[in-house]
Amino acid sequence: MYEHDAPLNDRTIVFTGSNKPQEAVKLVGRLGGKAIYLPLIETSLCDSEQPDFKAYDWLIFTSRNSAEAFGQLAENVSARIAAVGDKTAETLKQYGYEIDFKPTVFSADRFVEEFPAVAGNARCLFVRGSLAKDTITSMPLEVDEWTVYETLLKLDNAKKLIAMKNCIVIFASPSAVAAYCQAGGNWEGIRVAAIGHVTEHAIVRNGGHVDWIPERYTYLDVINEIAKGS
């Protein structure tokens, strides 16, 4: 798969998401690189009233954070579960939920193309974070929303990242991009990997260039892409 045994030798990979991706961090080490975890965002549970889950046929999750928050806030529900992404699905399974639908590509855009044919006339609840886009609610279905967590920008960490040079930075959300830019970050002196085309668009919109974006939107896949191109 790789041209060298240690393709990431002398490379520093910075992870910026709200959750440390343990498997990907270990993979960087096995491939000879140095991994740094510097989260640019954090999440906080919302103190909001729970909806009547019995009123919904489907619950929709598009992030690991929404799945984790739901698991902490809600009791077992009988509705069917739709999840975008393996990590989202894995988190829900840890709380005892079975996944009834996942899109063929881990993106909300692909989800809204494929899910309506499965859902029919079902009533859906989108379990979301405070900065979630309106992609899910754009479907021709009855979709209510329940905000379970708030996304906060960690600008102090963003400033630390700005001071770093000659590193590869992995952005996994537009929120992390926003934190970097609000702290005054520019795109000189770093190389950039994006997980997801929405994140890629946020980087480009803010004047950056994406060097790596995997076909499958996971940390392991983006590390493998970086290693193959090193």
TrEMBL record:
<protein>
    <recommendedName>
        <fullName>Uroporphyrinogen-III synthase</fullName>
        <ecNumber>4.2.1.75</ecNumber>
    </recommendedName>
</protein>
<dbReference type="GO" id="GO:0006780">
    <property type="term" value="P:uroporphyrinogen III biosynthetic process"/>
</dbReference>
<comment type="similarity">
    <text>Belongs to the uroporphyrinogen-III synthase family.</text>
</comment>
<feature type="domain" description="Tetrapyrrole biosynthesis uroporphyrinogen III synthase">
    <location>
        <begin position="24"/>
        <end position="219"/>
    </location>
</feature>
<dbReference type="InterPro" id="IPR039793">
    <property type="entry name" value="UROS/Hem4"/>
</dbReference>
<keyword id="KW-0456">Lyase</keyword>
<dbReference type="Pfam" id="PF02602">
    <property type="entry name" value="HEM4"/>
</dbReference>
<comment type="function">
    <text>Catalyzes cyclization of the linear tetrapyrrole, hydroxymethylbilane, to the macrocyclic uroporphyrinogen III.</text>
</comment>
<dbReference type="InterPro" id="IPR036108">
    <property type="entry name" value="4pyrrol_syn_uPrphyn_synt_sf"/>
</dbReference>
<dbReference type="GO" id="GO:0004852">
    <property type="term" value="F:uroporphyrinogen-III synthase activity"/>
</dbReference>
<dbReference type="InterPro" id="IPR003754">
    <property type="entry name" value="4pyrrol_synth_uPrphyn_synth"/>
</dbReference>
<dbReference type="GO" id="GO:0006782">
    <property type="term" value="P:protoporphyrinogen IX biosynthetic process"/>
</dbReference>
<comment type="pathway">
    <text>Porphyrin-containing compound metabolism; protoporphyrin-IX biosynthesis; coproporphyrinogen-III from 5-aminolevulinate: step 3/4.</text>
</comment>
<keyword id="KW-0627">Porphyrin biosynthesis</keyword>
